Amino acid sequence: MAEHQPDVETIELLRQRIIELEQESQHLHQRISELETEKALLSDEHTMCNRIIDCLPLGLHVYALEDLDDDRTLRMIAANPAVGPLTGVPSEQVLGKLIDESFPGLREQGVPQVYAHAVRSGEGFETEVCYGDEHVIDSAFAVRAVPLPNQRIAVLFENITQRKQTELNLEQLNAEQDQIIQERTATLQQSEQNLRYQVQLLQTLLDTIPLPIFYKDIEGVYLGCNEAFAANILGRPRDAIIGKTVYELYPADLAEVYHRADQVLFERGGTQIYEAEISGADDQRRDVIFHKSVFTQPDGTSGGIVGAILDITNRKQMEADLRQREEQLQSIFQHAIVGMYRTTPEGRFAIANPAMARVLGYDSAEDLMTSVDNIGKQLYVHSDTRTDMISRITEQRELVHSEVEFYRKDGSIVTTMLTAWGIYDRHGQHIYIEGFMEDITERKQIEQELRLFKALAESAPDGIVGIGFDGTVTYANYAMGEMTGYDEALVGQSVAAYHAPDSKATIEMINQNLREEGMWQGELMYQRSDGSTFPVLATAFVVRDANGDPRIVAGIVRDITEQQRAEQERHAMQQQLIEAQQATLHELSTPLIPISQQVVIMPLIGSIDDRRAQQVMERLLDGIARYKAELAILDITGVATVDTQVAQALISAAQAVKLLGAKVMLTGIQPSIAQTLVHLGFDGKDMITQGSLQTGIAVALGR
Asked: How far apart are CA 490 and CA 486, in angstroms?
């Protein structure tokens, strides 16, 4: 059988197919080369991203929700190294576990529920959580959750109890992320997809982080940054930053500072943390802390710098404000007029201010604190008072406010108003007693004096009233209310209520006196509540405080109705007495004594004026007529002087007696009187004269 030979057409087809296969092979080799190049690039980006995540000062948990309808299926699939220092639980102890297995206490706060809701809704959230158990350090965390593809959620958290840990170990996260990528990469295509996913995830995480983050190469050219850096620090789109140096983005003075710091970091390697000043997107200079680290290439050479920026402007302002507040509080503490203290429950002073030392009689706060090591025994007059106070503070958590007696340094006793409360640590352990102390010894004395004054005022028979400067009665004792008929209703009334209706001008005059002299006293007419009026003797004066400022007008009022009635009666009786006295004096000054049925005698003593001369004549004539006397003896032995007026009065008396048919005998004429009578032309024909009263009486009776 003849051997079959391929025809020319078939050979040509085979040749064409071989050529096509060779071309396809070349194309595949080219595609493989391109994929290898892309893989290397993605690997570099992945390495760089892992480095960045490892350097984050924030904790990162990544959970996968295995069942969308069950929030108990949240399983941790990734965590960065920072979670260990932040929580006290290493990441390897929680990786692969359900959230309720690792952190059971979070369910009570509703955390797993909101994580699952965020995965289902695709909406992130921010919150604060306080958590702690036998594994996790009791802390407060600021949490930000970001939904990720494939039913996953990334949880960023920061320990806000102490915002000092800002540098995280990014290297371990790089290894863990590398392992995750290697385990899930079966083919070049799958590896490429996973790398792209990780890059996207990292960028999302970086943009979610509120701290500005950047990375640049060894030449100082920016390779990337997060949204916080682009928007808040430079105020530019990310594309306008990548590929630029600090000299192109910052003012020259700041750019030089940043460049020198980068050079030092490249020379020394490792990590660099320093405080600096930046110019923000708002052109305002802000204080920040740079956290920077050198990352290496796969060949071990330096690839560039990754850094994070912590804005501490507000913190520094808060620190400055805190220092100022502390200075203010210290000033208040040192200059307070009340005692301020902190003591231990055992009875020693932790702090005390100068006012506390003054109240207790010590030279200074230091003297008090060093001299007293057992407050209960050395200071308390009644030691059981402190025991009871500590019991109330410790067991009942009361705020104690009571009067307490203390021994002063010199042994004297001071009465104080003591306020005390407890200070406790975070475990509820009582560690201090704090409070205030005020010396109320003088106030107690004043209160006692006020109580005594009130008792005296309420018992006083006179009315006592206090009046405000608006004319309103602020105080009235019992006597004042009883006197006016208002009783207790007098307080709150206007002063016009108990003054007589026509007293307006008097009230104005009193007010003017009080303003000018501070006091007024006089008689007034008051009106009772029933409309009747009565007279009073009132004293008003201005009461001033310790600074001399007027506070109220005080008045003391006495009803003088009975006094005036008694005075009127006394005046009438006095008038009657005066009249009786005048009659008696009249008789005594011109006595007329009958010594026989025909003779009366009138001895004159002292000086004689016109009024008495008239009385002598009236008395003499009246006696002669009454006794029907024939002779009246006028004895002037006791008359010191006789002037013309007196001599004329005697002559007139003698002439008047003669008209009644009687005669006058003048006795006791002294030589000087005789001369006066001669000079007056006295001839004696109308009267008989004798040298002495005795002779005159003898002559008269011998007739």
From this structure: 5
- Nearest partner of 218 among 149, 305, 137, judged by Cα: 305
**Are 399 and 419 contacting, i.e. CB atoms less than 8 angstroms apart?**
yes
Tens of pLDDT along 515-569?
Answer: 888 899 988 888 898 889 899 999 999 988 878 888 889 889 998 888 888 888 8
Q: DSSP labels for 476-529?
A: E-HHHHHHHT-GGGGTTSBGGGGB-GGGHHHHHHHHHHHHHHSEEEEEEEEE-T
Pairing state of beta strands 599-605 and 631-638? parallel
Whether 290 contacts 274, CB under 8 Å: yes
Nearest-angstrom CA–CA distance, 218 and 295: 10
Confidence of residue 8 (pLDDT cuts 50, 70, 90): confident
> Exposure string (b/e) for 293-309, b if CB count within 10 Å is 16 or more?
bbbeeeeeeebbbbbbb
Token readout for 538 is 């009132």
- The separation between CA 654 and the C-alpha centre of its own chain, rounded to angstroms, equals 103
- CA dist list (Å): 138 to 49, 92, 132, 433: 31, 20, 4, 26
- Lowest-pLDDT choice from 18-27, 60-69, 428-437: 18-27
Which tens digits make up the pLDDT trace of 246-291? 898 888 888 888 888 888 888 888 888 888 887 766 777 788 888 8
Q: Which of 79, 73, 116 is nearest to 95 (CA)?
A: 79
Residue among 92, 91, 57 at smallest CA distance from 162? 57
DSSP labels, 324-355: HHHHHHHHHHHH-SSEEEEE-TTS-EEEE-HH
Residues in contact with 642: Cβ distance below 8 Å, sequence separation at least 6, in sequence order: 608, 636, 650, 672, 673, 676, 677
| CA–CA dist 117, 410 (Å, integer) | 72
Among 133-137, 358-362, 396-400, name the one with the lowest average pLDDT: 133-137
Per-residue pLDDT, 582:
54
CB 615 within 8 A of CB 590: yes
Q: Are 244 and 259 in contact (CB under 8 A)?
A: no
**Residue 153 burial class via C-beta count within 10 angstroms: exposed 0-12, middle 13-18, buried 19 and up:** buried
Question: Which 8-state DSSP code applies to residue 231?
Answer: I
> 617: which 2 tokens?
């004549």
Q: CA of 351: how far to CAs of 369, 426, 527, in Å?
A: 8, 21, 63
* Phi, psi for residue 545 in degrees, rounded to 5: -85, -175
pTM value is 0.37
Q: How far apart are CA 684 and CA 654, in angstroms?
A: 10
E-strand ranges in 356-478 read 400-407, 413-424, 430-439, 463-467, 473-476
Going by C-alpha positions, the residue among 462, 383, 397 that lies closest to residue 430 is 397
Under 8 Å between Cβ of 559 and 538: no
In 299-425, which ranges are continuous DSSP H helix?
313-335, 354-359, 365-371, 375-378, 383-396
The helix/strand count (H/E) of the chain reads as 22, 25
